[in-house]
Write a structure and sequence with these properties.
The chain is 28% helix and 23% strand. The strands form three sheets. Strands 12, 13, 14, 15, 16, 17, 18, 19, 20, 21 and 22 form an eleven-stranded mixed sheet that branches. An eight-stranded mixed sheet has the order 2-1-4-3-5-9-10-11, sandwiched between helices. A three-stranded antiparallel sheet has the order 6-7-8. Strand 6 and strand 7 form a beta hairpin. Helix 3 packs parallel to helix 7 (223-231), helix 4 packs parallel to helix 6 (150-157) and helix 9 (303-311) runs antiparallel to helix 10. The protein is an alpha+beta fold and 563 residues long. Residues 46-175 form the Caspase family p20 domain. It comes from Mesorhizobium opportunistum (strain LMG 24607 / HAMBI 3007 / WSM2075).
Length: 563
Amino acid sequence: MLERLRPGFGVMRVWRFGWGGWMHRVVTALGLMLWCILFALPSLAADKVALVIGNSNYDHVGLLPNPKNDADDVAAALEGVGFSVRKATDVTFDQMRQALGAFSHDAAQADMAVVFFAGHGIEVDKHNFLLPTDAKLESDLDVNFQTVPLDMVVDAVSRAHSLRLVFLDACRNNPFANRMRLSDATRSIGRGLSPIEPKGSTIVFYSARDGTVASDGSGRNSPYSQALLKYLPQADLDVDKMLRKIRDDVLKATNNVQEPTTYGLLPSEDIFLVQSRSAVSLVEKPKGDDPPVTVPAAIPVDPAATEWAAIENLESPAILRTFIQAHGDTVYGKYAEARLAELQERERQRQQTGEQQSSQPPPASQASLQSPQYNIPSTTPAPPRHWYLATYSNVDFYGGDLYSKGLESASLDQCAQTCAANLSCKLFTYNSAKNRCFPKSGFSYAQIMSGAQAGYFFESERRDQAPTFRAEWEIFVKADLLGGDNYSARASSYDDCLLMCKSDQSCRAFSYVPFGKSKSCWIKTFAATLPTYSQKTERGIVSGRRADMVVRADGVYDTAARY
């Protein structure tokens, strides 16, 4: 989705991709007059322009929770300090390139041009690429045809007259690294992003040093975006100093694990994104009565998130166990448990293969090396462990989808088999009403949802050790919760509405209405009734309310016998 934001005018819904076909159908004189009037608006010649892109919902890899939030908040902050903003979220390859092309024309007429990108980025052979949501990289040959080169982003800002700045929150792990085939043995796939040397007075500001990865964070925003939102609105703060302050904040928030890095050189004179009234007394005030934009307050960074970013690719059971002991009650603790289980299963299979090849027991020294994950003397047999599937009725694991639209599945059992066959899948949700299976690599939280069935694979000595979860939300599909309305706001999706309520402590319930003049979210201080159903709610209303329920497995199955 692409939106155009103009300072002082709030959000204008302009230029959805494919407008050329619409223009060909404008054949009346009135239509041509309206078109001319629309393009006569002064925003295209604004002094300060920005393009903000946030990709969260990738089609072929798991969900990134924060980039869309980061894009929404950074776009609002930039608009609040006088930028004319184009915002694009969850965009495909074609949409992303078209957004950059349109923005390059804005930048050519502007004094300052800023691009902010949050999402996945990869490095291949020392060249950097940003991933649109429909990228499916099976080989390094696919990179040139399914991704957007970072050089194209830098080129889009290069024609601005004084400041050309790219904020890049894309230094995450390459999600396709384990499955990409290399066409040539001399080619390489790096970790994080490679250094860049922008020309002229252009700055590219990575969220993490080259060759390292950035944390997505556990709050609404990533540590990098959170720091940017803190300093972006500050008046009379030189850009160079602002970048250094952001760097210091991120280092502090991540215990020195993540270090934002600047590439390129600024001119010798001070440059300010925002100047105080005394410094810009001759600048025309923005028109309109829009209230000032409120930038979200900084959210403390979860130490588990930053520590997990540092160890998630290690293959050390000891380190994973230490992490689980410290953070086992977090979602990252669940990721670590799944990773540890994967390593243990791999070791079990290796040992099994060795036993088949030789009937002689290995020497004691070798035996101790074969089972390091149990941390017990080699003379003591390891307790037998088995893989089990725990199922949970009327429960949905929210987030972490490997396929954003799910897969067709005839039954819960078939959905479980689909997940078991995918090494990246640790859990799943099955929608029996629509026969859709949602395999997941992880999840953000559990929620109560009538008709949903969830499954979680775990390894244990006993089947009665199935994990329990705490459900934070109770969701009602095609239902309304009457009463308690506090206010309504535009919301482009159900996820946006849920996030609005989650970030507002006074919100106890919500209803998302996807029809009418615009899609809207009704924030409620309480839910006065049980869910109600009607012809109106059948059009797609989804409601939810806060919950605090312990979720326990209602079925546990031995996967060796079943899958």
